[in-house]
Amino acid sequence: MYGYVARRILVAIPTVLVIITVAFFMMRVAPGGPFDLERPMPEEIRQNILAAYGMDQPVWKQYLDYLGGLAQFDLGPSLKFRDKTVSDIISEGFPVSATIGLLSITLALAVGSILGSLAALRQNRPTDYGVIGFATVGIVIPPFVSGPILALVFGLYLGWLPSGGLDPRFGMTPERLVLPVVTLALPQIAIITRLMRASMIEVIRSNYIRTARAKGLSGPAVIFKHALRSAILPLISYLGPASAALLTGSIVIEQVFQLPGIGRQFVQAALQRDYTVVMGVVILYATLIIVLNLIADLLYAVLNPKVKYD
């Protein structure tokens, strides 16, 4: 097990390096720059600003300098927020995105697993058709459609919940998290429901489930002690990248509900050509994907004794 983890970490290092390299040069190739304003500034001032950030050097030299900073865990300063570093910006936005993402994936896993199991146990019955219809609608309707609708209905018309934003006096209060979390979780609920249904149908038709029933075990015991543990295995592989995407924030959700998360900061930084902030978020996202995929693989081995990482 330890050898497997060590090999995965060794493979992850060049993978992250490739991602950093591609993102770095793509940002430089894109037209425009962080100091291109609507009203042109004097060339002398422009050159002084570029020199202050080391952007007057050749691109390869900037790349090597950036890697040197990363080796010291320094993501550099923001090119737009002169009094903040990239680490400051990420530390401000990540807790919001992580809170919403963690709650969303937890809600999606709980609701999706229950609905998928019910649909599988009631296959080709009204319950199954209703769950599949709900899952199809959840997949088809994107968050940038469902988000404004939920905000309009429950926030403006009914007035039950705040329609967006976080109160700086109280922070992330439960009532302000309900709509973003539900909107972000709906597509994941639909996907997990379909995955769980297909997996559960396959498991309950397997020979060892028939054997458990033949031995006289009750229906709930067969489902909870035997079928559910095997049926949830495909979800483990899916939850790795899905959790990384949700934890780093949803661009759409944070824009719709005006949340100061890392996804919204990423969009603003990309539009403003704030190279260092974009690079910092890309590195964070890549690292989370690698780490969460590794955790998913290890958890898969724990749940499935047949899998051995030697």
Sequence-ordered SSE layout with sheet pairings:
Elements: H1 2-29, H2 43-52, H3 59-71, H4 86-121, H5 126-140, H6 143-157, H7 174-204, H8 207-214, H9 219-231, H10 233-247, H11 251-256, H12 262-271, H13 275-303
Helix pairs in contact: 1-13, 4-5, 4-7, 4-10, 4-13, 5-7, 6-7, 7-9, 7-10, 10-13, 12-13
Q: Main attributes?
A:
single chain, about 300 residues, mainly alpha, MetI-like fold
Structure description:
The protein has helices at 2-29, 43-52, 59-71, 86-121, 126-140, 143-157, 174-204, 207-214, 219-231, 233-247, 251-256, 262-271, 275-303. The chain is mostly helical. The protein has one domain: MetI-like (MetI-like fold, Orthogonal Bundle). The longest helix is centred in the middle third of the chain and has 36 residues, at 86-121. It is flat, with a radius of gyration of 24 Å. The model has no long low-confidence stretch (mean pLDDT 78). It is found in: Cell membrane. Belongs to the binding-protein-dependent transport system permease family. One of its GO terms (biological process) is transmembrane transport. It comes from Marinicauda salina.
